# Entry
Amino acid sequence: MGNRPAAKRRVLLWLSVLCLALGVLLAWQAQAQKAPSESGVALAMTIDDAIGPAIDDYFQRGLEEAEAREAELVVVQLDTPGGLDASMRAMIRAMLGSPVPVALYVSPAGARAASAGTYLLYASHVAAMAPATHLGSATPVQLGGGGLPGLGEPDPEAEPPAQEAAPEDADDAAPEGGATADEAAAEPGDPAPAKRRGETAMERKVLEDAVAYIRSLAERHGRNADWAEQAVREAVNLTARDALERNVIEVVARDLDDLLAQLDGRSVVMDDGERVLATAGLTVERFDPDWRTKLLAVITNPNVAYFLMIIGFYGLIFELSNPGSLVPGTIGIISLLLALFAFQVLPVNYAGLALILVGLGLIVGEALMPSFGILGIGGIVAFVIGSVILMDADTLNISLPMIGGIALLAAGLMLWAMTRFIGLRRRPPRTGQEELVGSEARVLDDFTGQGHVRLMGERWRARSHVPLARGQSVRVTAVDGLTLEVEPLASTP
# Structure
């Protein structure tokens, strides 16, 4: 027994040394990755999923990594079906303000840059595609695919706005330079484009905003703005060869080496002016998504996010319906915060911070109101997930060993508290009638059936199924009001 505290101290010491060694190893690896190469560097990234908060976080970290490594170029191999508008715009803002040129390369063969991917391609400093790829279908839609809640369809009997009404002589009324894409595509006798689409006022506002946005990106880099508008209004698509011929992209390349060879000497438009690329002989270094990005991508998957939102709402409803059950409330609040992060309602830093605060609150709640572990376990889960989300935030950069160490410390404290509570439950009672059961008493008079015993200095009425003699030791088996049920411990002296 005496060696147990020393053994515990040795275990804690070795755990501390292990955590310290892990932190030093991770720091050394990070420093080795950031060490600039003697030759020029092209940082290659891969986006092969829907655009969301996880991809946005990965992309912006890649731009920061390229700036830290003093890279000459960032090449993003893109294959996406689209994604969230908020994440796409955040990526575009980061790309336009990046001091390192960004080349978006739709590859490999069979890949696509649909919807949000088209906007990203137009915003990039260099737009490139591999053969057998395509882009387009950039019409904005609501998350569920329908209209906005609360906005009905336009009144079919209402007259269209004056600026959208089709005049009798459309050719004479058309301004010099041609009509818009919708007007050009309309057949004689068709209704006005807006009414033909059955758009609501909100949908028209979203559509016009998207058109202006992609046209501004096209004009910045001298690309085909008319086709960009057509991709938004009519969801048209282009193959790689057609995109090159129509000045939507600059390069069609077979692979990454072919792309770098074609980009050498090309002039691109940066935030501070034009720059000539020198890509000959660049060393390609990969910056692939890590485990954190993959985990966040799973959470931000639309199906998973929707499921988390449902679990969150029902968990809170069940907790409010049955106060004190704790399990649905704990699961509900964690799921709801993750769903809000996935739907980009909460930014990555606020979502992580909220989960950390919820986790700490649940751990404190476990200490103040024992719940057989559900609050503590839920608190640790929320704390770890929140820390992972917050790990690479710009203002709060938290290291992985510190997250693991604090989580292990919190789990150890919770385990110690639970073992203490279990030990207290196993201790014999110290007060009340329960304390009397199992106690030893002494018979005061010979009796059969009912008599008196002395217990803890007090005289008690006792009942026994066997004859008892004076001075005999008995054990209390039950308490019936003020009468003790006893049984003999030893034979009569």
About this structure: The longest strand covers residues 473-480.
